[in-house]
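Question (not urgent): is this output format expected?
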Amino acid sequence: MPITPFHFGPGALIKVAVPGKFSWTIFALANVMIDLEPVILFLLIGDPAHPWLHTLPGAIAVAAIAATLGRKPCELSLRWWNRQLSAGWQTRWLLVVPEITKTTAWVSALIGTLSHVALDSVMHHDVHALWPLIDGNPVQGIISLDLLHLLCLGTALVALIAWLFSRAIAQRYLTSGWSLRVIVERRWRQWPAMLLATWWSVDGCYVLYWSLVDPEALEMMRDANWPASLSLYWACGLIWYWKGVLRELIQALRRGLLEW
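Got this back:
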């Protein structure tokens, strides 16, 4: 790729899909490290070549360095990031989990370097990604460079939209798990608060926003919005209702089906 940030889009999409199992910071670090090869060669000999690190052994070696030596610095950088956030919307939207497990570091670093080499193989003829298993580059030019760039930018855009959507749902439907628990556990005294929280999340905040922005749009969309929003609210409630881990949930569902 012409510049390293083009590689960050696919990693961002993976981060949104499996946030707890993937470190975008390690992924980005691995991409930067592997692209030091053409940068240094360009400074030394004037040719941004990809002779060593942009191969299967080179990618694995860079991933190993990023996963082992880069994990702690990445954790420190994430903690520093959290300290810069102000209380309020910044912490609600931008706070990150700084801990990176060894497994996550290795997986993220390997995905970073191997995806980097795969993308560069399409663009650069001198990238022999599968060396020493296969010499040469059979995939160079398999798609146009414009399409390659578009795919990278497209994954970044999809990741951004998905992240904003997930954060918006998390903030708007934050009380859905508690509301469902109030109903299931028959906490009658908490029903007024539950009904108020449900109305505010499903319809109240929507009405407040659109009444200020575009009252005519509110009048047209409100009747169609609240059933879909209420369904999504309870869907989130079902997801957040369970307090155990996914494995325990699957086991509980299996036991329930067997008993049924």
